[in-house]
């Protein structure tokens, strides 16, 4: 196995992408290959996720606040860690994609969306931003759905193509939002057909990441 080039400077890199794009796999691979501290997306122990998928209209606002609190906690911890860190899903996907999308679908009221952004602005004052963000692009929703079904999370069994297609619409412009609004450099990778878990796909992915983080 070829040895990867580890970035010399301390880095904070975050993964972004639609549900099922492969962020968790990539974050673990970066952590293992470069020795970065891993900050998983807080979904396994999320107390509202199952209820949210069963009734989005009732639980969308609650879930968004739960994710906001957990991600802010991650940023505070990352600021205190001396080694490089990798985060599974960015803080900015919730306000710029999920909150706006759920509002558009009628699952968040106007007042709830406004209140969410008030919480976001207050809780994120002065937090450390990622140095780099890697955005996974998977245009084909059938690929996303296949990966979701393969990983077998119980609460995601009812995931619909239309919901993922709508999210993809928001994700298409997300790299520009990160760069122009938040000043964060992005690397966009189409991973529709690339298996980053082993072999050549793994090596090519790590080479791209190493160059991006240098």
From TrEMBL:
<dbReference type="InterPro" id="IPR031314">
    <property type="entry name" value="DNK_dom"/>
</dbReference>
<keyword id="KW-0547">Nucleotide-binding</keyword>
<dbReference type="GO" id="GO:0019136">
    <property type="term" value="F:deoxynucleoside kinase activity"/>
</dbReference>
<keyword id="KW-0067">ATP-binding</keyword>
<feature type="binding site">
    <location>
        <position position="64"/>
    </location>
    <ligand>
        <name>substrate</name>
    </ligand>
</feature>
<dbReference type="InterPro" id="IPR027417">
    <property type="entry name" value="P-loop_NTPase"/>
</dbReference>
<dbReference type="InterPro" id="IPR050566">
    <property type="entry name" value="Deoxyribonucleoside_kinase"/>
</dbReference>
<feature type="binding site">
    <location>
        <begin position="147"/>
        <end position="151"/>
    </location>
    <ligand>
        <name>ATP</name>
    </ligand>
</feature>
<feature type="domain" description="Deoxynucleoside kinase">
    <location>
        <begin position="15"/>
        <end position="213"/>
    </location>
</feature>
<feature type="binding site">
    <location>
        <position position="156"/>
    </location>
    <ligand>
        <name>substrate</name>
    </ligand>
</feature>
<keyword id="KW-0808">Transferase</keyword>
<feature type="binding site">
    <location>
        <position position="41"/>
    </location>
    <ligand>
        <name>substrate</name>
    </ligand>
</feature>
<feature type="binding site">
    <location>
        <position position="94"/>
    </location>
    <ligand>
        <name>substrate</name>
    </ligand>
</feature>
<keyword id="KW-0418">Kinase</keyword>
<feature type="binding site">
    <location>
        <begin position="17"/>
        <end position="25"/>
    </location>
    <ligand>
        <name>ATP</name>
    </ligand>
</feature>
<dbReference type="InterPro" id="IPR002624">
    <property type="entry name" value="DCK/DGK"/>
</dbReference>
<feature type="binding site">
    <location>
        <position position="53"/>
    </location>
    <ligand>
        <name>substrate</name>
    </ligand>
</feature>
<feature type="binding site">
    <location>
        <position position="89"/>
    </location>
    <ligand>
        <name>substrate</name>
    </ligand>
</feature>
<dbReference type="GO" id="GO:0005737">
    <property type="term" value="C:cytoplasm"/>
</dbReference>
<protein>
    <submittedName>
        <fullName>Deoxynucleoside kinase</fullName>
    </submittedName>
</protein>
<dbReference type="GO" id="GO:0005524">
    <property type="term" value="F:ATP binding"/>
</dbReference>
<feature type="active site" description="Proton acceptor">
    <location>
        <position position="88"/>
    </location>
</feature>
<dbReference type="Pfam" id="PF01712">
    <property type="entry name" value="dNK"/>
</dbReference>
């Amino acid at each position: 196995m070829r040895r990867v080039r580890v970035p010399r400077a301390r880095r904070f890199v975050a993964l972004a992408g639609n549900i099922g794009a492969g962020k968790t796999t990539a974050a673990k691979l970066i952590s293992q290959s470069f020795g970065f501290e891993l900050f998983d997306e807080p979904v396994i122990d999320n107390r509202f996720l199952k209820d949210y998928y069963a009734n989005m209209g009732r639980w969308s606002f609650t879930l968004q606040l739960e994710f906001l609190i957990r991600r802010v906690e991650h940023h505070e911890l990352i600021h205190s860690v001396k080694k490089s860190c990798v985060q599974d899903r960015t803080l900015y996907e919730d306000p710029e994609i999920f909150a706006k999308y759920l509002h558009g679908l009628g699952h968040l009221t106007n007042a709830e969306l406004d209140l969410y952004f008030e919480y976001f602005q207050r809780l994120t004052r002065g937090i450390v931003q990622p140095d780099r963000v890697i955005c996974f692009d998977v245009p084909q929703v059938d690929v996303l759905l296949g990966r979701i079904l393969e990983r077998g999370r119980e609460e995601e069994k009812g995931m619909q193509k239309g919901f993922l297609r709508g999210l993809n619409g928001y994700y298409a412009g997300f790299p520009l939002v990160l760069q122009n609004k938040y000043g964060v450099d992005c690397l966009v990778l189409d991973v529709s057909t690339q298996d980053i878990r082993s072999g050549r796909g793994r090596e090519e992915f790590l080479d791209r990441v190493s160059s991006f983080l240098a």
